[in-house]
Amino acid sequence: MTSAGILGLGIGRLAEAIRKREISAVAAAEASLAALERWQPHLNAVARPRREAALAAAERIDAAIARGEPVGPLAGVPMAHKDMFYRAGELSECGAKLRRGHVPATTSTALACLDAAGAVQVAWLNMAEFAFNPTGHNDHTGHVRNPWNPAHITGGSSSGSGAAVAARATLAALGSDTGGSIRLPAAICGITGLKPTWGLVSRHGAMPLSASLDTVGPLAVSAHDVALVTQAIAGADPLDPDCAARPAPDFLATIEGGARGLVIGVARGFLWEGVHEEVRVILEDALAAWRAAGATVVEVEAPGLAEIRTLVGTIILAESAALHAAQLRDHADDYTQAVRTRLETGLAIPAATYLDALRARKPLTEAFCRTVFSRCDALFAPVLLDPVPTIAESDAGAPTGARWQATIPRNTRLFNYLGLPALSLPSGFTRNGLPAGHQIVGRPFDEPTLFRLGHAFQNVTDWHLRAPAPPA
Fold this sequence. Notes:
Radius of gyration: 21 Å
Number of helices: 17
Strand content: 5-15%
Order of helices and strands: HHHEHEHEHEHEEHEHEHHHHEHHHEEH
CATH architecture: Alpha-Beta Complex
Shape: globular
Helix content: 40-55%
Structural class: alpha/beta
Distance between the termini: 20 Å
């Protein structure tokens, strides 16, 4: 089978083929490494390949299978991850000049879980500096570029993760989502990504940004593949005090249940304000696809969103500034101007303002869930309100840069504040040839319903199967 054929199988089918010895884990790893290398001059998605380590891990899996030993559910599946998940003894530079040469002594729980499931990590992927840029720009490592058109952004901060999966160079990638950093690259690159419920997935060994908002989740081609990866990484972890002390459910148990009998809610007020006409048409077509899948679509009210928009900004700025205060004082010139400006803004936020934002979180979340989820099983919302911009026009130093920096995460960061799970699904393409997407938001810890719905949507649409042309 060709490399493209191997990487096009999807996670479940590839893992099964490796277990049956129809494809070797080494061949799968080689295919991913070759694809990443072929795309690298066009995308700049890779921070560092892990060729020797990946091939050694793949050889161990093939040997275990040959001996008839049990292997994990993701055995031999090649993945690459955002360069902020620590692996003991390996570089983890977090897209930052200040982290060059940093070698952690601990391993991320999420990576350890994927290792235990048999996944093979083939590379570290580029990201926005300290995961603090919604467009994906990074003057330190070079901007990651969109595989559909390299002049355009990938979205951030999981920029390399979005680009590498969309290019079909890796089957899945871990990202982080503090204000949209999984859902934005997923929507902008035309793939699927999950921001899990806050506390579902351990953040131990992942670079922190904002403790009240940070989440860890996967990007992959399909909702089914995202569910498979989530199954491996979700669950209680004593090393993360904020991780929920509850076992992970079976995310695949109901995934084939279809959308019939489920209700999709649409709140057309705040979430749709300023939506571009091209994007609006795509969103309406997506709602028609939901109806075709068997879901009932109803209008709902979504309270408090304008207030939440301000409060979530307060939290992310204050918490990130507190985390970086000492480095900012001693090494301010080592930050890019865009990140430095955000951190300095956070230092000026009064403690009372920050604490008020935290105190408002529980009542606002309860009111939102009570109002929305009394009417529906998941809320439909746009991700990006505009066609995907170019790298040049959305750069922080460009005349239009400030507008893009503010508007791109407008509809994603709301749900970080609420702590709710949100699944980003590809929905079509605008006239500039770039993807557009929407997100479905669920009740706390109700990822199984989101996966069931996402899989049903992707059974009646093929947007997630469309891939950019490989480089010549």
